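Explain this fold:

***
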Amino acid sequence: MSTEREHTIRWHDTGAFSTAIRERPGIEVLQDTIDGKLPQAPIAAALGFHLIETEHGPAVFEAEATEYLYNAGGAVHGGYYGVLLDSAFGYAIQSTLEAGTSFTTMEYKINLVRAMTVETGRVRVEGRVIHRGGRTATAEGEIRDAADKLLGHGTTTCLILKLKP
């Protein structure tokens, strides 16, 4: 009996998103991503999460743990928590940016509170801007399960970048 499994990934080129953030405010670009007018990021396709809500300041993703995200101990690898939170932090900050600006993560800290497994089901990941300055921004966020139990939380500091035309 084979225990081997397979996971196939399809993603879109990021060129349309990159062009859009040069020309339009972040909130509009993120809303177009939710509406399917722009593709989700390749990392989202690879790891099975997607942006579902945004406003000026917060951004919300949904994800569902699958076996291909497991570590050898039989639970979702801690790095997945980091990817989910870093994405929510970053898009929360992007939602506040003007056309022609983006961000890069300078640092983040996360805390894993509960294990995530296939049995956990769908999770909600929310990022919120704490401070938005001219050169840096900070954000915080949480991962919660369907019963609203906290699975992980954290904070970030991001550098705001002026993009070249």
